[in-house]
Structure formats: structure tokens, C-alpha cells
Amino acid sequence: MKINYNIPALKVVNILNKANEAQSSSMERLSSGLQISSSKDDPAGMAISLKMRAQLDSLAQASRNSSDAISLIQTAESSLSSAHEITKRIREVAVQSANETYTDADREKIQIEVDELIKELDRLSNETDFNQHKILSGDKELADSGFQITQTGKYNGLQAQYSISLDMPTSGDKFTIDGQPFEFYDSSVSTTLTDPAAIGLDLQGDWKKDLSYASLPNFHIDPTGADLVLTAKNPGSSANTNPINVTNNSIATKQITQGIDSKEYATYEIVLPSINSGTSDPEPHKFQAGSGFTIDGVVFEFYDPEDYDNGEYDGAGVGVPTTKEDGSYLLDFDLALIVRAQEYPNFNLDAVNMGTSYDPMVLTAKNSGIAGDYLAGYDGGFVDLKLSVQTGSEANQLTQIDIASSKPDTLGLTSKTPIYGFTDYLILNDDPLTAANEDRYGISLLTMEDSQFALGAVDRAIAEISSRRAYLGATQNRLEYTVKNISNNSVNLDGARSRIQDTDMAKEMVLFTKDGILSQAANAMLAQANQRPQQVFQLLQS
What we know:
The protein has 8 helices and 25 strands. A hairpin with a 5-residue loop joins β9 and β10. By secondary structure, the chain is an alpha+beta fold. The protein folds into 3 domains: 7-60 and 491-541, no CATH class; 61-156 and 266-479, CATH 1.20.1330.10; 161-257, no CATH class. The strands form 7 sheets. Strands 3, 14, 15, 16, 19 and 20 form a 6-stranded mixed beta sheet that branches. The protein has helices at 7-32, 43-97, 104-127, 207-212, 332-340, 408-411, 448-501, 505-541, and strands at residues 129-130, 133-134, 140-144, 148-153, 161-165, 174-177, 180-185, 199-202, 219-222, 228-232, 244-246, 252-257, 267-271, 291-295, 298-303, 318-321, 347-353, 358-365, 377-379, 381-383, 385-390, 398-403, 414-415, 422-428, 440-443.
């Protein structure tokens, strides 16, 4: 028996220290809920967990970015909805102005409303913003470049019109317009109609107004005059068959105008900017960067390659370099080739090869009638607003949103020059604060011919707005799916991170209980080990 070293006690102390350390670690895990609370617990696991945590935070921000983009789109779509209502109203009064029962003085009153509606369209495009982004006025306005356009052929079809005289209608009178039966009744006596398919016209109410609300397939009804006036929705002789059928002699009808067919295609002659023919100029000239022109919605922008990375144009329009790869200036002939190479949605471009240039260039509508009868181009232009939304947690995980300008110029409702179909007076004036060229002539309804042109122009404007709203709606749906996908990814990633870093509470509690029992047993055994030297003392006493 030796007393210098109590080896059993030392062994028990070692075991007790290990049990206490394990119990302390278990208590830390149980109180924090973390399997890895510091790098010493699991260096590799800690590194992976921190990387996942950073990615989760980034995904949360990407989700907020996508939600912000949805809000931006909703703001733009709301203003475009108002623009839609405005253009529909302009079309309504254009149909009204095309009616020959109105005088020029009447059309002047109609024109006042149209001018104000166009001003409101311009205000909407200028003042709709989201966090200081003017989202409906385009990225930038291009300066004039010298582009010219002249309409050389126009659509001249005419709608058929009929009048209905209903001075003294009585209950039971019946007539049919465009296949729809109508029947008068007196609500003070009875509301029963003899024809269940007929639309009832109450003699005690505003029956003319009720009549105008009827939706007919081929005609509009104007109830404002002494006689009702029916106007065919589409020009042409196909509407020259009287659409009115009466069953008594108290209702008189007559045709006011004949519908006239027209297969004529709208045509425009364009003159491209010309400053560098390259043949007779002793000193070549350079096109002005930042200027441009627009043909059938396609924006051409002159740019200096030195202003862009690698000399490549990254704008939303068609880039026209002011200098070529060999360092020489762009020629008029080169510009003509670029213009001819583009596809235009509603027009065909024809040109006669003159050797060094193309002159003239003629735009011909692909469809006859009012479908191509609108201002097909103008000098200057508005480049689409391009917004990049960070919708991912890594670099270059971007979603591009392109929002086209909705200014009256881009919708074809204003012109910089008083050409055919537009007013001979300005409806928008220069802005003295910005010195911008804001002088604009508006679409005209002052004559029947102008009204026919306006119908084509407004139809095109409505189609443009509809297209932009459809694009914004589709993009919003896409971003909503992006938010859902980010949410799913975050849940899965958080689950993976939890499996690495979080404590399994049930398992840890088992270990904590085991270590507690071992600690108590070690304490008991330490007491026993400390009693062994006392046996030596007893031996010495004996």
C-alpha cells in the first residue's frame, strides 16, 4: 500500500472532470438550442452553417426586392389603366365626330375635350414615379436627328349611316335593329313584353338612353339628336343593307350615308438624317450621339462606341454607331442599310437603290384600312426604361424589366409638326424650366376626314397600351412565382442548416442525464478512493 500517490483517486478525478465537462457542454447545447455554438465544436460545420445563414439572409432580401418590383409594376399598371380609359374616350368621341350630322362648330367643342385628354395622358406619363423613377416616360428622350416623314396615301373608307324617327311611339310598338328586337311598353300599365327576346323600352323612362346601351354587333346608336342615328362600326358597302325592320308605320327610317369600301393602304415617305454622304463632302461629318428617330415603334439611337464597354450598345433601342470599326464615320448609306435591315410590326419598308443612298424610302401598311392609318414615325424618340431586379442571392441573378414610354408621342397621338390628321395649333408647349422641346400638335377631330384618321391612330394607341399592360401583368406573375420559389428555397436551405447547427434536444437530454449519473457516481467513488490512505494510518497505529 502506497501513500505518496493515490492513483485510484486520481483516476476517479479524471473521470469526474470529463463527466462535468460533458455535462457543461450538454447544458450549453440545451440552453442555446445549438449543436455548434462556437468554432471549436465543429470548424467545418460552423463554416458551412455561416455560409448558409448568409445565403438565407440574401434570399430574404431578394424576396423583398421582388416584392418591391411587383409594387413598381402595379404602380405603372394603375396609370396605364387610366391611360386606357382616356384613349377609349378619345375613340368614342372620334366616332361621334365622324358622324355627318355634326357641324364643324360641334366638332370644335369635341376637340376641346380631346386636347385636354391628351394633356392628361402627357401628365400621367411624366408624373407616374416609383421611388424617384419616372416609370412611364422612358429611360431618356432622344434629340431630333433630322428625320422626316410625310403621309402620301391614306385610307378613305366611309361608314354607312341610318336614321330612325320615333317621335310618337306607343306601347306595343316593335322594331328590330341589326338583328336585336326592341319593344315599347308603359310601366304605369304593365311591364309584360309580347316578345321575350326583345329589349324593353319604357315610355315612362329615358328610353332613348336605354336604347343606346344596347350592344349591337355591327352598329353604334347615337340617341342625342331628334332622330336616332345608326353608324356602322366598320366602313364599307357591306353595311349598306338596311339593318332596321319595323312592324308598324309610326316608325320611319332612312339611310343617311352610303358605306364606301377602300382597299387603299396607308403609305408614308420617309427621309433619313443625312449629314455624311461620303462622296462629295470635303470634310466628313459625324452623327450626333444621343439623337435618333422612331419608325413604327422601333427606336433608332445614334451612339458613340467610345462611351460603351467594348464599344457595344446596351440600350433598349436599335443602336446606330456614329463611327465604324475602322474608325471612319458612319455614312448615310450605312444608316440606310441599318434601317432596311429591321423588321417593322405594321409596315413594309421599300426603297430604291440609288447607288450611294436609298431615296426615297416608303413605308406601306401591311393591312388596308384604318389599321395602318396613323403616324408611322417621328423624329427623336423615347428609349425604354430598363430596370434590373436582383431576384437571387448570387451575383448576376437578375430579372430584367423593360417599361416602354407611354407619352402621347409614342402612342401616335401627338406630332412635332402640323401634318395630316393633327391640329394646326399646339396643345403642348415647351417647358421653360427644362428647355425641352415639348411643342406638340394633337390628334384632330375637326373634320370627318381627320376623325377617320383618328380612329386608326387611337386604335393603334389602345393596342400599344394593351400590349404594355399585358407585358407588365405577365412580368408581375413571373415575379410572384419568383417570390414563391425563393420561399421554398429558403425553407429547404434553413432545414439543411438546422440539421448541421441545431441541437437534437431529445438526444442531448439523454446524454445530459447519462453525464449527470456518471458525475454523481464519480463523486461517490472519489470519496471511497480518498478513504484508502486512512487504512495505512490504521496499520501504523496497530
